[in-house]
Fold each of these.
Amino acid sequence: MENEIIVCIPGTWESRTKLIESVIVSTSGDFMFAGMILAHPKGNDHAELEFYDADEQIAEGFAYGGQGKLSDATLDQISQHQSVVYLHFPFGILEQKARLLKFTEVLSKCGGIAVKLETSGVAHEWKRWFELLNSDNLFGTYCATVVLVVDEDFYYSCGMHNFGLADVQISNSFDAPEAADLLNKFSFWQLVDKPILKAGHTFSLTADSPHFRLELSKDKRHSEGDLFYNPNGLWELQRV
């Protein structure tokens, strides 16, 4: 499972049969759901789709993953969802972006309430999800994919493995806005410039900004096989 992108979508479907009907009606027959396959015959394409009954833990996961960006109305809808589906894609968010857009759009039209990327935990309302992934700016895809988290010791990113890159962390002794700015800019720098980094290298936002020494460690927060696990490890930014 660690080699898959999995998308969670709670919905209004009372049953599997209702989902099948909704897919056909909302797409005028261009898509169909049968077995565990959401198919697009004209495009010679399909994605694996799992259907489950309502899950009482879903609402909490979306509230946490939305980080204040999901409206109360959306969270209320999620709390009343009648079923949940999971879409599966091969790993590599950039390579799969067009397919993610295509298949999630189908589910948004036929009763899906919101979307959560299970390989990072970040959750979005539909409008924001489509705006970010449709953007020509790579930062949009980054924001759609990566979430920033804080624990007792660090601020850290989760989700960079979707791009085949290491995550990053910094001491939580920094102010939250400063830490978020550093984590986002370091991660996006990795994504755009693809620098060859080694432990001991230094990083700073500008020549006059604070410098940080890089140390690479294994992802110990998540076990191997966990969808959040980053096999590329994570960089720690240590103030010089």
Amino acid sequence: MEKIVMIGYGNMAKALISGMVGKYEILVTGRDFGKLKELEKEYDSKIKIAQFPISIEGENVILATKPHSIAEVSEQLSGEAKTFISVLAGVSVEKLSNTFKAESFVRAMPNLSALFGKSTTSLTGDKSGKYLASKIFIEVGSAIWLDSENELDIATAIAGSGPAYLALVAEAMADGGVKAGLKRSDSEKFVAGLFNGFAPLINSHKASDIKDGVMSPKGTTASGVATLEENGVRNAFIKTIESAYGRAVELR
């Protein structure tokens, strides 16, 4: 079984571990031994743990900490990794290679749907790391290799940050149902069912075709879509992607 060293124990690290456990030998490392022990217990000792400092000589590594902590993390690592994969937003391959030692560097941007094996992960970096990175992230959904970090930053604005946008949409729709007269619990169930059923639709149909297929002349959907357009929802989402992309570029 291939070994992966996971640096970090936050939400994204846990999501990736959940997708990879049993398929890879996973060693989780970090500075807080208490959190490491909690994680070991959570996964019924199916993972191994090691407190900083450690050697990553010849290892395949996934970095899943906070972006601002990379200098501190690098001081706790010795040796040269084989493939070094970072899931940190806004941290460039150049910055990674100036901070850590590895034969190849790859940037990856999964999202929290990795917890359920449904993340669409964007990847870019050194081509020598493409095979391993793709193989790892296919275990937690699907993986798309991009030609540049600029494209990855755009993808981050969509797929990486997207769960937050969709959560806001879901919350607002549930609120709308409550305002119209549904009980909160029922409204939330309908919204959850909508999102669950929409996934296969968007995977097999163009978004415009789905919209047109639901709309009928002078119908309820046409009225609702007109209200969304009057309130600039389409433009708001376009601006949102541009804004998130711009921030990713600033963080590089």
Amino acid sequence: MHKNFTQKTLSVGINKYEFTSSLSCCVNDATEVAHLLKRHANGDVNFDDVVLKKNSRKEKVEYALDNLFSDVRGCNHVLFFFSGHGYRTENDVYLVCRDSSLEDPGISLVQLMNRINKSSIPSITVILDCCHAGFIGDTEKNSNPMNGSFPVSCIRENVTLLAATTGPDVAGEDRIHGLFTKALLYGLQGAAADLFGQITPASLYALADSYFTAGQQRPLFKSNSTNLNTLRLGHAILDHQSIRELKNKRFHLERKDPVQLYPHEVCIDLKKTDKIQRFEQLIQYQRAGLIECPNNNSIYLSALLKRPYQLSALGNFYLELHNHEKI
């Protein structure tokens, strides 16, 4: 009897090669990604089936891919991560395995997409940190925009692809991690989290996009999704109850006019717990970007200067979500 898994991940990193130059950081990449995906920031289990492959031969990687994309009852999301060499031929790109050669370059991206598009797993995320990774999902590998020939992507519903480079580009590394994976790790550790700690493929890509400057490799994001998965939960800035508290009358945040602050609201009298809690909550709202003060002053300084505060655009957005009972 097969064990039921809600989420599965396969993380592959290959440093050692029999027929091409070795790399230094790919095993580190795969190991760290697998480690972070295993549990949320609070220690709760996230991906309940995590498979790590280091310096593996093609046969073992293909076997692991078959298991990853197989129809396991109860599994609603799988994630495949690869860090290693990417090799481009005239008609395809290959994820190079330890025993790959010119005659058998490795895992074909065309065949990988066929596996993905045929899989009955409801939602799939693929992250590739290798040269030419951006060709994944394209049906025209030799596109040339100058001649009016553009790549065409073919991705089934609820599949998301993150690539370290555009198709023609190469992926860089430092001594410890691939540059793309380095940005992803920052994101998975919490830099790409929203107010509630949710880290999605889109937020990871946004972080990676800002990590690279003009002239460097350009990461790529392709998705045909109606619902982006939360890949990991970082530490939340606020919880849902705090958002619902925006409507509490003691904050006066449903007014259209700014709310006046006064010096006496900066309370240090430990007996006045309600007053302390109110001001502490205002500090949290400002830290989360839900309220704002003139000249970007802190809530503390605004109170001392008798300045007002009001909901920010983000605060209005979350208040509307609450008003429509979506939080």
